[in-house]
């Protein structure tokens, strides 16, 4: 419950419309109550009457109620309200927006004036992108502390995944997003590849999509696995230092999800670099891969993750196989990645210690 009082509404009106604005009355729709209200419930609109520069105006103040239909978090609801604010006035006969804003942690109402785009300001961290270490290893300079770094990654992400949440609809939402969102599997298939694509026909893409429907229904039985996640844990989102420390950037796609996503995201990059060097997983990159997943299992004991990881490998495989982002891949590398995506969906449990069998 958000507790908004008369003084909060009055303060908002002055911020949004100027110091001359003042509240005249507020209450339920159809009945103004000069005494105001003690609370402002989610989904319950409130009618307010106010005056600006001698003009008396009426408006309906409302806040969107959270639900399990993709509106669990305030940022979900913010996106809907911003859309309504931007587009409602452009439609004939549609109610016109008067203002938009947010309620902060102290229940103060803060207006957003004429939004065009949003930004975020983050702290500057020390370090360099982890992918540079992978480039170094590919060039032949492999060090013992590279294995220690992969081990640290696994220990850290294992601790993150240790936080669980009981919310089956949210787990199912994350699986729906994995397959159907514009920035995930179906969006990548549509936008990150040419059609037709040399070496991978549209019929193969269709078969991939249809197979993923089976996996969507399989994962409905794993809602107990909902955990805290990073959501985009890959070498471009990790900063490492010469002292062996690391930091992460760009947490994406929600606070909660399937741990297999984070495992697939980093480990497929060990496979990618190895494919470009050896044509399969071997050498230093195999050691990194084995260390990362092996330490994760030691940390968490979560062998069940290999029952659900396959569609997450498809998502991340589409990313690293895309000619838009990786135009310099040899044909053999791209072909192996596509075989991997197709084959991994055919195993009930991912055989993580024998990954090369999926490349044929």
Feature tags:
360 residues, alpha+beta, Aminoglycoside 3'-phosphotransferase, Chain: A, domain 2, 2 domains, four-stranded antiparallel β-sheet, three-stranded antiparallel β-sheet, 11 helices, 11 strands
Describe this structure in words.
InterPro entries: Aminoglycoside_PTrfase, Kinase-like_dom_sf. It comes from Pseudodesulfovibrio piezophilus (strain DSM 21447 / JCM 15486 / C1TLV30) (Desulfovibrio piezophilus). Residues 204-286 form the Aminoglycoside phosphotransferase domain. Pfam families: APH. Helix 4 runs parallel beside helix 9 (283-300) and helix 8 (259-278) runs antiparallel to helix 9. Residues 34-39 have low confidence and may be disordered. By secondary structure, the protein is an alpha+beta fold. It is 43% helix and 12% strand. It has helices at residues 6-17, 74-87, 131-138, 144-161, 168-180, 185-191, 202-219, 259-278, 283-300, 310-321, 331-344, and strands at residues 22-28, 31-33, 46-52, 55-61, 100-103, 109-112, 128-129, 227-228, 238-240, 246-248, 256-257. It contains eleven helices and eleven strands. The strands form four sheets. The chain has a four-stranded antiparallel β-sheet. The chain has two domains: 6-112; 128-359, Alpha-Beta Complex (Aminoglycoside 3'-phosphotransferase, Chain: A, domain 2), CATH 3.90.1200. The chain is elongated, with a radius of gyration of 26 Å.
């Amino acid at each position: 419950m958000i507790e908004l009082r008369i003084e909060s509404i009055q303060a908002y009106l002055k911020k949004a419309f100027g110091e001359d604005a003042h509240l005249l009355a507020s209450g339920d729709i159809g009945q103004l109550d000069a005494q105001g209200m003690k609370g402002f419930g989610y989904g319950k609109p409130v009618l307010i009457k106010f005056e600006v520069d001698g003009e008396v105006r009426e408006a309906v103040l409302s806040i969107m109620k959270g639900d399990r239909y993709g509106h669990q978090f305030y940022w979900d609801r913010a996106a809907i309200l911003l859309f309504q604010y931007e587009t409602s006035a452009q439609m004939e006969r549609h109610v016109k927006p008067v203002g938009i804003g947010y309620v902060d942690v102290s229940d103060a109402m803060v207006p957003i004036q004429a939004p065009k785009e949003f930004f975020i300001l983050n702290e500057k961290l020390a370090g360099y992108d982890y992918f540079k270490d992978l480039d170094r290893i590919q060039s032949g300079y492999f060090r013992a502390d590279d294995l220690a770094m992969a081990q640290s990654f696994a220990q850290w992400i294992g601790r993150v995944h240790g936080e669980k949440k009981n919310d089956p609809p949210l787990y199912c939402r994350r699986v729906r997003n994995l397959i159907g969102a514009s920035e995930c599997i179906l969006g990548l298939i549509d936008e990150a590849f040419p059609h037709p694509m040399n070496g991978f026909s549209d019929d193969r893409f269709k078969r991939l999509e249809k197979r993923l429907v089976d996996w969507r229904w399989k994962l409905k039985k794993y809602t107990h696995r909902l955990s805290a996640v990073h959501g985009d844990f890959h070498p471009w989102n990790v900063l490492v230092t010469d002292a062996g420390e690391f930091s992460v950037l760009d947490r994406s796609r929600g606070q909660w999800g399937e741990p297999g996503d984070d495992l697939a995201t980093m480990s497929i990059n060990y496979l990618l670099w190895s494919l470009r060097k050896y044509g399969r997983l071997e050498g230093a990159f195999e050691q990194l891969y084995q260390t990362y997943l092996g330490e994760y299992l030691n940390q968490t004991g979560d062998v069940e993750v290999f029952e659900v990881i396959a569609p997450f490998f498809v998502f991340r495989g589409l990313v690293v196989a895309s000619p838009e982002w990786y135009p310099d891949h040899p044909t053999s590398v791209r072909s192996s990645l596509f075989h991997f995506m197709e084959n991994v969906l055919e195993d009930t449990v991912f055989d993580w210690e024998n990954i090369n069998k999926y490349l044929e």
